[in-house]
Design a protein that fits this description.
10-stranded mixed β-sheet; alpha/beta; Rossmann fold; about 350 residues
């Protein structure tokens, strides 16, 4: 199995690298941008969401300290209805952390919504290693879709029959939860027995936290959102909260993306997670990438504060990693959400073959 996984991942990386420049040339839109804020009465939290979308207005430099991006703020939307992607950031991220990926997908005909998960982000990690961390993330994804669906300006643009989720790190697990996974912790004991107490999920501090988390599982309410038709989990975290049983009712087509730098530490994790799905899933390994490498370049102030995250790869390496990632995302979502209005005839091949039994 490991041989086949390595072979398929190598094929996927090569295919993504070749596909990305062709797809980039086919981009047909400018990038519109706006922000939306909503107070969530049910949990007394504010949800702030960035929206990137196909526009006809040329971009300009926009400052959202400490971030600087290029987009048309409030730009007139392009005509048509476009697939919707919700982007759930990793714990050390926020709604601007993947702005290059979001803008690139908008150029290719997607509406991309990126919320900041208030209790699990670079500014506040109070919910780390608790069930609240994932319950709130899943609720944020659903609330983001509700905001788009009810917005007078964005609803005509967003095709809610074609919805996908991209989750990074803890967002990868949240994406699987809204896709229909039900965590149960049954795989945790075997995982720690195999990898040892030095692992981040198995050390004494984490074990105490996860004991409390697992006591809340399975959740009384399923977190699935029936609008979600395709899921991508990038460097998914906390997969030890899943098992074959917890994925039994899971339906959406799924792409699991792993960073090669992280695979070295846990070589069997992505293979094991893929084997638990009742339906075949696609798997892609991107060499030399880690959690930080999938983010857009950090602004200088963050690079100083978070050097390990922001400087894990060089700018040239990050560009190559994102090129491969973007090609894989576009091919996957065009296949499973239908062709974006911007790209007649662009439907790409599967990123990888499905894993063999």
């Amino acid at each position: 199995m490991r041989f086949w996984l390595s072979l398929l991942c190598s094929f996927a990386v090569a295919a993504g690298a070749l596909l990305a420049p062709c797809l980039a040339r086919a981009a047909g839109y400018q990038v519109g941008f706006r922000t939306i804020g909503q107070w969530q009465v049910e949990n007394s939290l504010r949800l702030d969401v960035n929206i990137w979308y196909p526009s006809i207005r040329p971009p300009r430099e926009l400052d959202y300290p400490p971030w600087t991006i290029e987009a048309a703020r409030g730009g007139k939307p392009a005509e048509g209805r476009f697939p919707v992607l919700v982007l759930s950031h990793a714990s050390p991220g926020a709604r601007f952390s993947y702005y290059q990926t979001a803008a690139w997908l908008a150029m290719h005909g997607f509406v991309v919504a990126a919320p900041t998960h208030t209790v699990d982000c670079m500014y506040n990690m109070e919910a780390m290693f608790t069930w609240r961390q994932f319950r709130t993330r899943a609720a944020d994804i659903t609330s983001t879709l509700n905001i788009l669906q009810k917005s007078p300006d964005l609803a005509p643009l967003a095709d809610m029959s074609r919805v996908g989720v991209i989750g990074y790190g803890a967002g990868g697990l949240a994406a699987l939860l809204v896709g229909g996974a039900t965590p149960d912790c049954s795989a945790r004991e075997n995982y720690c027995a195999g990898i040892g107490r030095q692992d981040m999920y198995c050390n004494p501090w984490a074990a105490e936290k996860l004991d409390a988390l697992c006591a809340a599982l399975p959740p009384r309410k399923n977190l699935a959102d029936s609008r979600v038709k395709a899921v991508v989990a990038v460097s998914p975290a906390f997969s030890i909260l899943l098992s074959q049983k917890s994925l039994r009712g899971y339906q959406p087509p799924t792409l699991l993306i792993a960073g090669g730098a992280e695979i070295e530490d846990r070589p069997d994790t992505i293979r094991l997670l893929a084997s638990w799905f009742s339906r075949p899933v696609d798997v892609l390994q991107i060499d030399d990438a880690d959690t930080g490498a999938f983010m857009s370049p950090c602004p200088p102030v963050l690079s100083e504060d978070l050097p390990e995250l922001c400087g894990s790869v060089s700018l040239e390496e990050r560009e190559q990693i994102l090129e491969t990632l973007h090609g894989a995302l576009l091919a996957f979502f065009l296949k499973h959400l239908g062709e974006a209005d911007s790209a007649p005839g662009m439907a790409g091949p599967p990123v990888v073959e499905t894993l063999p039994d």
